[in-house]
Amino acid sequence: MSETEQATSMAARATAGTYEARAFAASAASSGLGPATIRRREPRPQDVQLDVLFCGVCHSDLHQVRNEWQKTMPTVYPCVPGHEIVGRVTKAGSSVRKFKEGDLAAVGCMVDSCRTCAECRDGQEQFCEGPATFTYNSPDRHLGGVTYGGYSDRLVVDEAFALRVSDRLDPAGAAPLLCAGIITTYSPLRHWNVRKGQKVGVVGLGGLGHMAVKLARAFGARVVVFTTSPGKTEDAVRLGAHDVVVSRNAAEMQKQLGSFDFILDTVSAVHDLNAYLDLLKRDGTLTLVGAPETPMPVGVFSLLFRRRQLAGSIIGGIRETQEMLDFCAEHGITADVEVIKVQKINEAYERLAKGDVKYRFVIDMASLK
Ligand code: NAP
Ligand code: ZN
Ligand code: ZN
């Protein structure tokens, strides 16, 4: 075989069973995002293919694109982020049971897992020992390289990792439920059994925080928002907060000492955790979902006195994500979104980095066509 023939046959092998899709990708940590062409696999019998309608913009996308998690999860470039995806099914493989062509379907932070370890068998695929295949920047089990996320026109996913979305929900407002919703609702709030009669704090009023307020309120708790942005006070109340504390005001913080059952901390940057541990009652829990990579110091005495707990939580399993979507459909809960064209994504990242979003950017993927 000549060199040219060899090269052609390798290219054919690399593309056999795949097709081209359009995307927005970052080519380096400082490049910003721009148009790119990627390959998706042809759907297998158990796969669904989606036309992506809307994709939410999570602060994790920004951390990942800028390689801010380089010690824990280094970014492989090109990187196509996006894990808050709502789409329309355009193909359903022969063994697909949950979907048919034309249905709405959603994809969150995971697209696969080993399915056999104890965590997977328990419906906690996010903790898969495999580990789980995340929607982007995870080794791709089928094509090699890494997975590419929802800033794209099309996506192929095993139906086991696709969720049903009620068409009663606005699809743009529903997209952020796939990450911001599951993280702040069923998973930590349900796990720590947040309920009526409890006092719950939400730290940071961004994408995750605003969903946490809506959901903690729907679960019957008394909700207090802690914000560094005094301008968000009115919104916090509109979203369901009973009270709002500007966290830079020491006197206001002092009034809240020792009074919380549970606090969910959604802050994306390094900040003082001890200030929040001191607000917990005996046996209260501060759960971190925000994910700055730099370690944050903890004063042990804040934990010892009153036997307080410091915990973390990451997304939720597939079964729980479906329950959350059904709960939101029943209660009419969606995110407050600012819909943008994909060409505005770099501006949106700049605003997200400054906490200037009300309260989730969602990309209208029709703009990619
Ligand atoms: P976001 O929309 O940017 O919201 C973060 C909020 O944190 C900001 O709106 C701001 O609220 C507050 N904040 C920002 N910088 C701050 C600072 N220096 N000091 C104090 N407060 C500050 O981000 P998001 O999409 O909600 O994500 C939040 C974090 O959660 C990110 O680190 C993300 O990677 C992580 N995350 C974790 C999971 C998980 O499974 N655990 C899943 C998704 C995202 P105020 O203006 O109200 O102060
Ligand atoms: Zn996310
Ligand atoms: Zn597993």
Summary?
The protein is an alpha/beta fold and 369 residues long. It has helices spanning 3-15, 59-65, 118-121, 171-174, 180-184, 186-191, 207-218, 233-239, 250-254, 274-277, 300-304, 318-331, 345-353; strands at residues 18-26, 33-41, 47-56, 85-92, 104-107, 110-112, 133-134, 154-158, 163-164, 199-203, 222-227, 243-246, 260-265, 280-288, 309-312, 337-341, 360-364. α13 links the parallel β16 and β17 (360-364).
Radius of gyration computed on alpha carbons: 21 Å
- Small-molecule components bound: NADP nicotinamide-adenine-dinucleotide phosphate, zinc ion
Helix content: 25-40%
Strand tally? 17
Q: Strand content of the residues, in percent?
A: 25-35%
**Helix-strand sequence:** HEEEHEEEHEEEHHHEHEHEHEHEHEHEHE
Mean pLDDT: 94
Q: What shape does the CA trace take?
A: globular
* Sheet of most strands: 7 strands, mixed
> Total number of helical segments?
13
Contiguous uncertain segments of 5+ residues: 1-12
Spatial gap, N to C terminus? 40 Å
SS class: alpha/beta
List the keywords.
369 residues; seven-stranded mixed β-sheet; six-stranded parallel β-sheet; 26% strand; globular; disordered N terminus; binds NADP nicotinamide-adenine-dinucleotide phosphate; binds zinc ion
